[in-house]
Each structure stands twice: as C-alpha cells, then as structure tokens.
C-alpha cells in the first residue's frame, strides 16, 4: 500500500490568461511535515486552494488524491469530515463569534462532548491569551491571536492532514516562534502537515521534506535539511551567500 496521504499529479490552474500553476507533481506521505516555499506569486496559495476546492471559477487540470481517492470538487465541509483541515492565509476565523464558539465550530463533526471540552481546555492551556479572551468576539483579536485561534480551531477537528497557508505572515518574531513550536508539536503527535511559507528557513528547519515553487512550477524538491544547505536555496530563499 502506498504511504501517501496527498498526491498531486499534473496540476494546472489558470486564472483567465494567467497560468498560476503549470503542471506540478507533489506528494505528502503519512506522518510527514512537508513545506512548499517560494516567492510572492509563485502559485503556493493557488495550489492549496486547488486541494481544498476553494478556487474561484477558473481552469483546473490534473489529479489530486487524498488517501487514495480523487479530491477534485470537494466542498469544505466534506473535507473536514474526511479529516482534512486548512488554515487559510488571512486566518478565516468567524469574527462575530466568540473565541470559545470558534473552537466549538472546529469540532462540529465530532459528537464526543467530553472530548471536545477537554480539547478546548488543551488549546486554552497552549494559548493562554485565548483563554483570557474566551468570551470575546474573534474579530477583536490581534492578527497573531487570530492565527492562534485559526490553528486551534482547525486542530479541534482532529485532522489527518493539516494545510497551513503562511502561518507566520504579519506576526511579531515571538509569535512566529510560538506558532512554529505548535506546528512542530502537532507534527510530533502524528498529524501530517503541508506548510506553505515564505519564511523558508523556519519552514525547512521544521520540515522533513521541501519543495520550491517558482512561477507556477516546482523547480526543486528533497530532504529539508539538504535543502537548507543547498547553495541555490541559500542564495534565493534564505538570504545567505
Ligand atoms: P504569495 O506568497 O504572495 O501569497 P503565492 O505563491 O501564494 O504568493 P498565488 O496567490 O497562488 O501565489 O498566486 C499565483 C499567481 O496567480 C499570481 O500571479 C497571482 O496574481 C495570480 N492569482 C491568484 N489569485 C488570482 C485570482 N483570483 N484571479 C487572477 N489571478 C490570480
């Protein structure tokens, strides 16, 4: 049996005349933390949106399989039921619901009441700022606090695969560290992660494998530690000589 949870073959996405993704292949195996790095506009978010079926009306070709089944055209709620969770760029929390309600929404496919409450308490202990603000509307949280909430909400669904779109974007360095600590922890607990990041150094340090995307194509892929020491990656993505 194959080990991959996610397999993308020949994915092409075009927004009108703009070819955002030009025929990529990508795999994520069970238990791996895989990162997809690349410059602005490389096509990373488009790739994640193709996986979750949340692209706007545009031309999509190729095959995306999740646990051996084709995923194309799936609705978001169906993805959650299939244990696939996404934390989008810009977080996507329910701004007019409280922090506590947001967490419960993440668990809407579960019916183990005691387990859900235990998980809420767990995330409140990981992110004490959320606990202090449990009754507050999520829209009043800072960007970093919304990122914590979005991540905790996604994990409330007990996903098998967690997709993260630029979790460090716009966060203060101390918050970036905290978020990456949680990502590494979640991975250690056995959740498979596909992490899109512009902070290539942190992402490769946390990952097992990485892919580099440039102008809609995957131009490099391999062991994350090797990539950290690759002169081309160093020069183009790590700001090193
Ligand atoms: P970033 O790191 O800046 O978020 P990215 O690698 O995630 O970049 P995408 O957001 O996937 O890149 O964008 C890839 C290309 O597709 C870009 O040229 C972008 O302008 C274009 N694009 C993205 N969304 C749309 C859209 N809805 N309509 C038209 N073009 C789009």
Automatic annotation (TrEMBL):
Residues 6-240 form the ABC transporter domain. This is ATP-binding cassette domain-containing protein. Belongs to the ABC transporter superfamily. InterPro entries: AAA+_ATPase, ABC_branched_ATPase_LivF/BraG, ABC_transporter-like_ATP-bd, ABC_transporter-like_CS, BCAA_Transport_ATP-bd_LivF, P-loop_NTPase. It holds the Pfam family ABC_tran. The keyword Cell cycle does not apply. Gene3D superfamilies: P-loop containing nucleotide triphosphate hydrolases (3.40.50.300). PROSITE patterns: ABC_TRANSPORTER_1 (PS00211), ABC_TRANSPORTER_2 (PS50893). Keywords: Amino-acid transport, ATP-binding, Cell membrane, Membrane, Nucleotide-binding, Transport. Coiled coil: none annotated. Transmembrane segments: none annotated. GO terms for molecular function: ATP binding.
């Amino acid at each position: 049996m194959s080990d991959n949870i996610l397999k993308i073959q020949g994915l092409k996405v075009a927004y009108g005349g703009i070819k955002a993704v030009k025929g990529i292949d990508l795999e994520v195996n069970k238990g791996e933390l895989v990162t997809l790095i690349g410059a602005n506009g490389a096509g990373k978010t488009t790739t994640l949106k193709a996986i979750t079926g949340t692209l706007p009306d545009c031309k999509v070709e190729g095959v995306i399989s999740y646990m051996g089944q084709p995923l194309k055209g799936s609705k978001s709620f169906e993805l959650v039921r299939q244990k696939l969770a996404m934390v989008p760029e810009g977080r996507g929390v329910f701004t007019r619901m409280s922090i506590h309600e947001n967490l419960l929404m993440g668990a809407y496919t579960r019916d183990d009441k005691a387990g859900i409450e235990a998980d809420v308490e767990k995330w409140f202990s990981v992110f004490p700022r959320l606990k202090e603000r449990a009754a507050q509307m999520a829209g009043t949280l800072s960007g970093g606090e919304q990122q914590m909430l979005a991540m905790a909400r996604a994990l409330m669904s007990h996903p098998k695969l967690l997709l993260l779109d630029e979790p460090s974007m716009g966060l203060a360095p101390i918050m970036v560290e905290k978020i990456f600590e949680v990502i590494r922890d979640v991975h250690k607990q056995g959740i498979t992660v596909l992490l899109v990041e512009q902070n290539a150094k942190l992402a490769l340090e946390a990952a097992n494998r990485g892919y580099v995307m440039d102008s809609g194509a995957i131009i490099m892929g391999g062991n994350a530690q090797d990539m950290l020491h690759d002169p081309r990656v160093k020069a183009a993505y790590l700001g090193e000589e």
